From TrEMBL:
GO terms for cellular component: archaeal-type flagellum. Belongs to the archaeal flagellin family. Its main location: other. It comes from Methanocalculus taiwanensis. The chain crosses the membrane at residues 12-38. It is found in: Archaeal flagellum. Keywords: Archaeal flagellum, Cell projection, Cilium, Flagellum, Membrane, Transmembrane, Transmembrane helix. InterPro entries: Flagellin/pilin_N_arc, Flagellin_arc-type. Flagellin is the subunit protein which polymerizes to form the filaments of archaeal flagella. This is Flagellin. PANTHER family: FLAGELLIN B1.
Length: 190
């Protein structure tokens, strides 16, 4: 028997093996790129969620007013505080009635309860709606709500107090103000 020349067959084998390596490498790179894109997308979602929860979602617009609790020009304390709020830029709509409100001054700390009617001592409500087309307690972009707060104990003159507004989602917003030395029926609080 005569031995055949196998040089051409070896080249064909090498080409088949090379093609197999290229196909396996292409599939592997496709899988790795897909996993990388998936991981990148998940990381981006986590960052956006974290920013939404860490960012302050509401802000105070305009002047915070305090209303005296007596008669005449020199009243004993402020029994009602009003502030107008709106969403910060880029924030999603939120249900304001589900917000938790805490009043704190040097001698008192209390949780104020939301009421849909008129606020009474120890409560708060939404007293005015601006641009609220849907007529609900959900604060949406371009809307403003005026909130009325009535702590049980009225802060007297020269008293620094804090109203902490904690929405369901988002960071805490604080309103820190001081009552004036002489309390009038209507006071702009700074």
């Amino acid at each position: 028997m005569k031995k055949q020349n196998e040089n051409g067959f070896t080249g064909l084998e090498a080409a088949i093996v090379l093609i197999a390596f290229v196909v396996v490498a292409a599939v592997f790179s496709y899988v790795m790129l897909g996993a990388g894109f998936f991981t990148s997308q998940k990381a981006q979602e986590v960052v956006h969620t974290g920013m939404g929860q860490a960012a302050s979602s509401i802000e105070v617009h305009g002047i915070v007013y305090g209303y005296g609790n007596g008669t005449g020009d020199n009243q004993a304390g402020i029994d009602t505080v009003t502030a107008t709020i709106a969403l910060t830029s880029g924030m999603q709509a939120m249900n304001i009635s589900a917000m938790q409100v805490t009043y704190t001054d040097p001698t008192n700390r209390e949780f104020l309860t939301y009421t849909s009617g008129n606020a009474a001592g120890g409560g708060w409500n939404i007293s005015k709606f601006f641009n609220n087309i849907t007529a609900d307690t959900v604060l949406e972009p371009n809307e403003k709500f005026t909130l009325t707060f009535m702590p049980t104990t009225a802060p007297g003159n020269n008293t620094r107090f804090t109203l902490a507004l904690q929405p369901e989602q988002g960071a805490l917003t604080t309103i820190v103000r001081s009552t004036p030395a002489a309390i009038y029926p209507v006071n702009a609080l700074v």
